[in-house]
Amino acid sequence: MDALYLVVPCYNEEAVLPETARVLKEKMRALMESGRISRKSRIVFVNDGSKDRTWELIVQLHRSDPLFQGIRLSRNKGHQNALLAGLMTVRESCDMAISLDADLQDDVDAIDEMVEKYREGCDIVYGVRSARQTDTAFKRKTAETFYKLLRFLGADIVYNHADYRLMSRRALDALEGFSEVNLFLRGLVPMLGYKTGTVYYARKERFAGESKYPLKKMISFALEGITSLSVKPLRMITSLGAMIFLVSILMLAYFLIRHFTGHTITGWTSTVVSIWAIGGLQLLSMGVIGEYIGKIYLETKHRPKFIIETYLEDEINPRPSSREMN
């Protein structure tokens, strides 16, 4: 019988964590009693440098029930790194792992179908939102635009899929081979190429607490995804430069004709507009190129993606750990 590990990144989730633990425990116990997963299965909370009582609650849960495990990162490293830390830590102990958020917006009942898809031979099972009614109109439109933009730029991502997914141990081992520091798991996982399945679910309202993705973080996350998965923006700059060069050739011919026909009156408006337009395009192009150079700079340093300070396994007492992943 296969062991299932649930990996749940947590950042300041004090308000929602007790309810999340209760709901996930009920689901795991039901799966164990029905014989669909091993009793060695576990729920692993990854504390991503929380400033509230999140880690204290994780320790209490671990001491009250060995079903719960905890990973404490040495500092806040962001959702994607925290998620990767959990997956890479449990991959040697589990047969399959499911990643989900701590806010209970991901329907836990979809776990049953994910496990069934795994038993049918799928190494990766994506949890895909069937609708986005719980999102505001602004968030819904921006999210849909984000997915469409990534696809337009050539990124292979699953539409309306966040980070609610099942991965087999084989898929986790393959994911470990991706060494980039600039993480965007939604784009990396489809690159693995194993057999995949899809489970649709309705996104719920957040049980408690506040969203960890305000507009500023959403924009940053979108830029991370675009620059991590596609070089098409650089090619667009090249195409734009070629177009401007062709226009300049046509304008040169036009001005020479004006000169030889005696119409040499200088146009103030056209001059100013041309200067501002070309200057703006140059700055924009430099910014895009700089973004990619910055990514290269970070990659060449080979800094660890995360450092684990403590890993609460099946024993009651916390065990310090200095595990790093490059």
Q: How far is it from the N-terminal to the C-terminal residue, by CA?
A: 32 Å
Main CATH class of the largest domain: Alpha Beta
Q: In percent, how helical is the residue content?
A: 40-55%
**Main pleated sheet:** 10 strands, mixed
Order of SSEs: EHEHEHEHEHEHHEHHHEEE
Task: Describe this entry's structure for a reader.
The model has no long low-confidence stretch (mean pLDDT 79). This protein has 10 helices and 10 strands. Strand 2 (42-47), helix 2 and strand 3 (68-73) form a beta-alpha-beta unit. The chain folds into 2 domains: 4-216 and 305-325, Spore Coat Polysaccharide Biosynthesis Protein SpsA, Chain A (Alpha-Beta Complex); 232-301. It is elongated, with a radius of gyration of 25 Å. Strands 1, 2, 3, 4, 5, 6, 7, 8, 9 and 10 form a 10-stranded mixed beta sheet that branches. The relative contact order is 0.14. It has 326 residues and is α/β, with parallel strands linked by helices.
In short:
By secondary structure, the protein is an alpha/beta fold. The protein has 10 helices and 10 strands. The longest helix has 34 residues.
Write the layout of secondary structure elements.
Blueprint: E1 4-10, H1 17-33, E2 42-47, H2 54-64, E3 68-73, H3 79-90, E4 96-99, H4 110-119, E5 124-131, H5 137-152, E6 161-168, H6 169-175, H7 185-188, E7 196-202, H8 215-229, H9 232-260, H10 268-301, E8 306-312, E9 319-320, E10 324-325
Parallel strand pairs: 1-2, 1-4, 2-3, 5-7
Antiparallel strand pairs: 3-8, 4-6, 5-6, 8-9, 8-10
